[in-house]
Amino acid sequence: MKAPVPALELFHQMVRMRRFEEALSELWHQGRISGELHLGIGEEGIVAGVLDHLIEGDALALDHRPTPALVGRGTDLSLLALEMVGAETGLCRGHGGHMHLFDPERLAASSGIVGAAGPMACGFALSHQRLRPGRIAVAFSGESAINQGMMLESLNLAAVWELPVLFVVKDNGWAITTRSAEMTGGTLRKRAEGFGIAYTKVRGADVGAVWRAVGPMIDDLRRGRGPAMLHATCHRPSGHFEHDPLIRMVTSPREFAAESGPLTRSLADGSGGRIRDRIGGMRRVISTAAGMRVHLSKRRGDPVTRLEQTLDATAVARVRAAVEKEILSTLAEVGSP
Ligand SMILES: Cc1ncc(C[n+]2csc(CCOP(=O)(O)OP(=O)(O)O)c2C)c(N)n1
Ligand SMILES: [Mg+2]
Questions:
Q1: 233 assigned to some structural domain
Q2: 70 and 169 share a domain?
């Protein structure tokens, strides 16, 4: 008999991820977190659906959006938040920021180098294969990371060494301001199959579908049946990072004028590259902005609200209240500047 989807627990984890990241966003806007802040808002369905199948000793190799996975895996929220604000008492003594994190107790590591989750996961998986059969490694990455050389090498090595790696590709269709389809040859399915890697595609906004799809894949990995790839689509409404200029441009005419003004003025400037190239550059900016506008207007579903609509209202309220309490006490630990 197939196990039922643990909907309330998945909802609880997704709300924890969402509310924690919303709190981080506020801290960033207050100037408490320095540098760029890449959040995984919109990816929670993928992360929660996969993590629910993990057991103690499994490893996580994460990308530049590591926060939802660390929250879902049980990393202490205060340690995480303190790390983000650069405190000595943070998870990595304030040296990691939001992208370069390591939680040794949970074998969870992240890197801002696109594609680095591949080799990290292979390393974890090789040691599991030798020392702890039955344990697996999960590599979370974006879809454009699958074009990175080291990721392709990792797919190959994982296949020839039959490593227990689950490559989870969170596909939002964009790599900063480039549409991934414009720079990706072939399909991810054919790529995975070319390496002899099992492949499944799923809609990431449907956490239940992710959970159901990934269960048998992980069972196979634990039995030593080699690597697998889960290709999950998702929609990230806030763009690449907080205060994303492309998102601002396409949602506010004033911001559009502010961002495109210097480019327009450069067309009238006699110096620099050939006018044909400069007009070509301007066209590309307009086409990218138009593409993002279309992307934002498409209703792709939010994993949190989508599941919430199917749950009992009292249970939802209970979960939300518990999460608010947890977030408030985390913020109290971080304190004021
Ligand atoms: C090796 C490397 N090249 C380029 C970058 C700059 N960079 C940061 S995120 C990013 C886009 C990644 O796109 P994707 O893998 O689809 O992830 P997403 O941001 O959409 O989640 C790029 C090019 C980097 N960090 N590392
Ligand atoms: Mg992407």
A1: yes
A2: yes
The answer on pLDDT for 1 being more than 70 is: no
State the total domains in the chain: 2
pLDDT tens per residue, range 248-280: 989 988 988 887 788 788 778 878 888 888 888
Q: Are 98 and 225 in a shared domain?
A: yes
The residue whose CA has the least distance to atom 7 of ligand 1 is: 114
Closest by CA to 334, choosing from 81, 101, 24, 27, is 81
Q: Which residues span the domain enclosing 82? A: 7-239+304-334
The whole model's pTM is what?
A: 0.96
State whether the beta carbon of 110 lies less than 6 angstroms from ligand 1: no
Query: Per mean pLDDT, which range of 75-89, 116-130, 191-205, 243-257 is the poorest?
Result: 243-257
Q: Is the CB of 42 under 6 A from ligand 1?
A: no
